[in-house]
Every structure is written in structure tokens, then in C-alpha cells.
Amino acid sequence: MASLQGRRHVRGKIRPPQRKSNIETLFDNTWSTLASAITTIHEQKAYTLSYEEVYRCGYNLVINKCGERLYHGVKDLIEKYLESEAEMKIVPVLGIADTSPSEGVQVLKAIQKLWKHHVTCLLMIKDILIHMDKNYVPQSRLPRTYDMGLYLFRDTVVRSPKYPIKSYLQKILLNQITMERKGDMIDRGAVKSCTEMLLELKENQGIESVYITDFETQFVETSREFYRLESEELVRRFDPPEYMRKVEDRLNEEQFRCSHYLTEKTEPKIREIVEQEMIAKHLKTIMEMENWGLKQLLINNRLEDLERMYRLFSRVTNGPNELQVSVSGYIKESGKAINTNVYPSSSENAEKGTPLGVALALRWVQEVLDLKERFDVILNSAFAKDKSFDTAINSAFESFINLNPKAPEFMSLFIDNKLKKDFKGKSDDEVDNILNKTTTLFRFLSDKDVFERYYKQHLSNRLLLGKSLSDEAERGMIAKLKIECGYQFTSKLEGMFQDMRLSTDTMTSFKGFLENAVDPPPIELNVTVLTSTFWPVPSVPVACNLPAEFLAATKVFERFFTTRHNGRKLTWHATMGSVDLRATFEARRHELNVSTMAAVVLLLFNNVPEGESLSYTAIEQETGLPTENLKRTLQSVACGKFKILIKEPKSRDISDTDSFRFNSAFTEKLSRIKIQTIASKVETATELKETHEKVEDARNHMAEAAIVRVMKSRKSLDHNNLITEVISQLQGRFNPAPSMIKKRIEALIDREYLERAPGNRTMYNYLA
Amino acid sequence: MAATTTENEYVTLESSDGFQFIIHREAAMLSGTVRNMLSSAGQFTESTEGVIHFRDIKAVILEKVCKYWYYKARHLNSVTEIPHFEIEPEYVLETLMAADFLDT
């Protein structure tokens, strides 16, 4: 229009058109066209409209500064339309939800239908009013047509001030979800489109959607209530494995729900609720349930259920912690059971010195190993190798293993037994496997020095009596100990092997020496030279009067040895050797392999006429053996499996009044007989005491050495720091008590290694 | 119907004084208004019939506009220097108004 008028004017002169007077008529005309167009759109008859015409109306209104009236006119129009639609289509169906909750979906569908229709219309209205959106709306800071339409829907339909649509909508949605939770089928599509609608509707100026304000908060609340009741009921009705399965199903279900017809944003919130209500609040109940609680699961190795428990508990903050506490509680409990199982019977039997003690030691270790193995499996397959669980399990083992004061001895005995017997015919891998497991138990020991002492004892028996099955296995074990405790720990054990090797060499050259000797010994002699610091030998050898032939032989060897190694002192230990004897019985000859002490005793009977006997005291005098050793020796030859001597009166124990005679009627199928002294068994009470004294002694030395080491480098240090340093140095071997260290410090002050700093009682100075 | 028109290569523009311009749909779509007209979800008469009647634009101006669309289409992604688009001074105002209306 403007252009048509403009052209009448003189060329080159451009004048703004003057149409002020007819703006009102223009507005009335164009607005009525537009309004009817919008109504047509609402009636879904947009195809009858000419876009150009409607657009031109909008365009003209805006360029003629009627933007505001246009905008509000459109707004009013849409609002009225929505209001009447809500009244006609939604309000009538609201009643259905009251009568039958399951039919509430009808309301959802009605709302949905209006929503869809509204959005479609809105898109068209937005298209025809595009000029207004681009030019009028931004400058007057109003929401664009489309957003304005959404707000209208929110305020006139969803939050209608006239009708309780909002509360119905909430109630129905929540109802539907609760119904599905209870196992009913619902129309997910309807729920989904409603939640989508709510998501699409935004708060004014905000990114927050109506979904959050009008639905989610309520949903979270009702869910919490639902799961609070549900978990209480399920806990009452089902055993833990079943309960946990149900919880897991619920978790999956909620996740599925969120991703399918709610929104991902709700998922963490609802998950947190399920976790809190169903897991966190029932941790203890689940674990401590009588029937199939954690304990039964552990006992029966229900890996799958344990894994589920771990998985579920890991979801809540204090879950893993509680689970660890309970698991380690169970370990300690079963550990104590193993301990008490072994203990009363073992102390009883050990007094008698029966091999049953060994069996018990073996059983103890085996049971601990089995327990450990079971928990390794559980850790690996149920607890996902969780580091913190590993630590918890290990510390539980540590605590109960160290509750058994005999643990170091038992472990050493176990290894001893394995190396002597059980490894026969086993592959290297199997051997390695067993040794590895034992090493893991060893790691739990706090008194590693006690173990070392026993191990040394047992190793020396194995080496000297040739009982070890495989050198390789022995070395393998030592290598493992070395890895665990370092060079210092195993240096003596390695020295023992070294001695054995050197002795073989020495014997070869001794044989060569004998070929040229003037006075070869009357008997064949095999000597093992031991370095006294490496081996657990008594510093004073056990007294024993060797027969003349034996003495002669030792003299020859001494002569040979001093020529090769000047300045070394040889001490003969009869307690540790063995002798091959040839004995003639009535039936046949036998070769007897006995301990040196037994040989000394048996040889006495060479000088006793047939049928006569020797009294205990006579034997004691002749041999000069201490009572303890003599009794054990006599027991092995007179009361053991092979009765070379006959004891009067017959009984299992030796007493001072007994007498013995040679059993010439002895018969046995094998020609070579090995008579073992009762060895490597659980220690008797006195021996135990002795060992403990020795260990105590060694500990004192170690502590003093550590104190001196620390003080030497620090020159002066206060009491508390010194104690901490010393403890940290000694921890690898045993757990020192501070009081013990204090005593050692005082001893060192007495011996003038240290002094108290003048003027400060808590400081010590090192005296060079 | 909808399918054929969208696929239809040409669109007919009719001026206020009854002249018809049959031009490439693609070129016409360079106008925001025409684009809305033809692609709106509303399926308005223009999009079903393929004819757009501009009741406010005369043939002289509409021709100018059509030329401009082709001119723009040709040089849209051009890297060489773009030649000047000539508009006779007597049509400048009307062309300007049409351009605003058409969102071109």
C-alpha cells in the first residue's frame, strides 16, 4: 500500500506515507482476518488459509506499530481457546479417575490430546506471526509466540486456576507408577507422553521444567514412602538372598522406568531412594538374619549371593564398611573355632609326646589354609578383588592366627611335614602352590623370629637325617621366605645348605686321605661339619660316652680336618648323627639304621651274655646320656614299632627301675630297618619354655642391636622417638613391647653404650 | 499432493496486477517468508497449490525480486568478486519494502 501511494509523488522525493487516521480501521480489519485465521487453525482447517494473506496481516500490524495489540490479542485468543477446551474435554473425564484409579489413564490421554493439538496449532501460529516474533517480540522482551503458547498451556490447563487438573494429573501419574511397581500392566505410552509434556513446559525465564516442580518432587516423596513400606515387608517375608534379588530387580526396574518414560535426570534421585530405603536401612538386618544371613552365605560359599550382596552394599556409603566388619567378624569367629578345636587336645597330647601333636598342627594349618583359600575365592569372584576387602580379610586372619601362640611352630611343622612326606610324587607346580599358600599364612605371623627358630630346627633335622624329599623344594621355600623377610632372615638357613654342600666335598677328600692313612678307623665314618652359628646346636654337646671304635674314628677325622683348616675347633654332637648297625637275631641278620645314641645303647648289649638284662641305671652310667635323651632313645628301641630290646616290666613309658635285654627272637620281613627317634613333634612343655627363653634372648639382642644402630646414627635422641624408630626396625621380625625396649635401653646405659643427657632425663646420648 | 508439490521444481508467483512468474522453488525459498509459506506444518493453500499470490507486490517489483533471488543463488557461495545488483532508483523504495515483507 505504501508503495502505491509513494509512486504518485515527484521523482527523487521520498516521503513517509501519512495514514495515521486510518490505523484504527486497519487494525480492526486485519485483526479480524487474523483472529478468524487462528480459529481456523484451531479447527484444524489451516489448509483453507492463504499464508500470504495471514502473514501480510501480521506484517502490516507490526509495521504499523500495533505489535503490542497483536501480541496480546493472540495471547487472549489462545488462552480463551485453551480454557474452553480444558473445560469441555478434560474436566468431564476427571471424574473417571475418582471412580476407578486404573482408568485414570483416560485423563492422561485427554490432556495429551489437547497438548498435541495445541503444539501443532502453536507451530502454525508461530509461522504466520514470524514477522512479529522477529521484530516486535525481541524489542519488548516478551516470550516468543511459541513459548508464550507453552506458558499459556501451563497456566490455563496444567495449573488451571479453575479446575483441579494439576492435582489429578499428579495423582494419576503417581498412581500409574505405583500400579506398575505392584506388578500391573499400565499404558506406558500415556505416562511417557505426559512426562514429556511436563518436561517441555518450562518455568518462566527458567530452564527448570514444570516436570521438576510439579511432578518429580512428589514422585520422589511417594517413592520413598513406597520403598520404605516395601523393604520392611520384603525383609520380613524373604530370606536375604531372595531379598537382595528383589532389590536388584527393583533397581533395574526403576532405571528402566526412568529411561523409558520418565527422564534420565530423575534416575539418580530415585536410585538413591531405593538404595537408602532398601539397602542402607537394612544392612544389619540383611547380614544378621538367622536364615541365610551373611554367615550362612559364607559357610555355604554362595558366591553368587555374596557377589550380589557386595554389589548392592557398595552402592551405599557405609555398606562396604559394614560388610567388611561382618566378614572379618566371621573369619575371626571361625578362626577361633579352629584354634579351640586344636588347642585342648593338642596340649593334652603334646605332654605325652605322641605324634598326634603333629597331626593336630597339620590339621590346624590345613584348616587355616582351607579357610584362607575359601576367602580367596570369595574375594576374587564375589568381592571383585576389592582392595579394602582384601585388607579386611587379611587383618582378620592375622588377628586370629596370632591368637594361637603355637602358630609359628605349627606352620613350621606343616612345612616340615610337606617337605618330608607329602611332596612325594607331586609336580613342581603343586609343590610351589602349597608353599605359596603357606607363605601367605606366614605373612600373617607377627612372631616371625619364633617361626625362624622352629624352621631352623626342623630344617636341620631334615638335612642331617636326609629326610628332605627335594632340595629344590627346600630352596624354593627359603627363596620365598627371603622375599618376605629379607636376606637377614634367611642367611643362616642358607648357611646350613652351604655347610651340607661343603661337607660332601670334605668327605670326598677324607676318603682319599684314608686310602693313604696309616691307621684307618675301624668303622666307616661320615661327618657333616656344621658352622655352629648357623645351626640350632646346643653350645655344649650332650654328654655321651662313645664306644672306643667311634672315638678312634673321630680322632682320625680330627687329624684330617686340622691339617686342612687350621685353628678350627670340632665338637662332636652325638645327638644329631645316625649309625648303621648289623645285628644278628635268631631268625636272620638285619641292618639297623639308628641314631648315634641308640647305637651307643645297643652296642652295650654286645658285652652282655645272651638272655641277661641290663638295668636302666647301668645303661645310664655306661652311656653317660642325660635322662631325657636316654629315655627317649630307649623308648624308640624298646617300645616303638621295632622292639630290639625287651623291657621289663612292659609299658609304654621308661622308668628308672626298668631293665632291658636283647630281643634275639626279633623277626621282620625287611632286612634293612630304620628306627626313628621320636623327633619333630609338638614340643613338650619344658621344651616350649626353653624355646621361649631362647626367643626372648634373641629378641633382646635384636632390640639392643637396633637401639645401638639408631643411636649411632643419631648421636642423641629423645626417648619416644627412639622407641618408635626401634619398633619400626623390629616390626618385620616380631612386635616388640615398648616396656621391653625400655629395659634394653637401661641395660645399655648400665653397660655404658648410652647415657642420659645431663639436665634432660628424656634424652639419650650415644657414647662411642 | 503434498509430496508432488514439494518435489515440484517450480513455483508460481503471482503479482498484484496479475502477472505470473514461474521460477525455481529453490530460488524462491531464499525468502524466509516464502520458505515458511511452503514448508509450514499448516499446509496452507500456497503449499498445496504451488501458487503464491502476492496481493501487495506489483509485477515490476516482483520481477526485480525474482532476479535478485537468482542473482543471490548464483553468487551465494562464490569466491570471486560479486557484480553489482542494479536497482533503478524509482523502484528502490518499493523493492525495499517488498524485501522486508519477504524477509529476503
Q: What does this entry look like structurally?
A:
- The complex is a heterodimer of chains A (768) and B (104).
- In chain A, 66% of the residues lie in helices and 5% in strands.
- With 768 residues, chain A is mainly α.
- Among the domains of chain A are: 27-208, 5 helical Cullin repeat like, CATH 1.20.1310.10; 503-574, 2-Layer Sandwich (Ribosomal Protein S5, domain 2); 577-674, Cullin, Chain C, Domain 2 (Ribosomal Protein S5, domain 2, 2-Layer Sandwich), CATH 3.30.230.130; 685-766, Arc Repressor Mutant, subunit A.
- In chain A, β1 and β2 form a beta hairpin.
- In chain A, α4 runs parallel beside α7.
- Mean pLDDT of chain A is 77; it is low at 1-10 and 346-355.
- Chain B has 104 residues and is an alpha+beta fold.
- Chain B is built from 6 helices and 3 strands, in the order αββαααβαα.
- Chain B has a 3-stranded mixed β-sheet.
- In chain B, α5 (59-75) crosses α6 (92-102).
- The longest helix of chain B has 17 residues, at 59-75.
- The radius of gyration of chain B is 14 Å and the shape is globular.
- Residues 1-6 of chain B have low confidence and may be disordered.
- Chain A binds chain B through residues 1-3, 6-7, 11-12, 14, 41, 46-56, 59, 63, 120, 123-124, 127-128, 130-131, 134, and chain B through 32-33, 36-37, 40-48, 52-56, 58, 61, 89-90, 93-94, 97-98, 100-101, 103.
Task: Describe what is shown at a glance.
Chain A has 768 residues and is mainly alpha-helical. Chain A has helices at 2-6, 23-42, 51-63, 67-99, 105-128, 130-140, 145-158, 165-181, 188-200, 210-237, 240-261, 267-279, 283-288, 294-299, 303-313, 319-352, 356-382, 387-401, 407-422, 428-444, 448-464, 471-485, 487-515, 548-564, 596-604, 616-623, 627-639, 685-714, 719-730, 738-750; strands at residues 578-584, 589-595, 613-615, 645-648, 659-662, 672-674, 716-718, 754-756, 763-766.
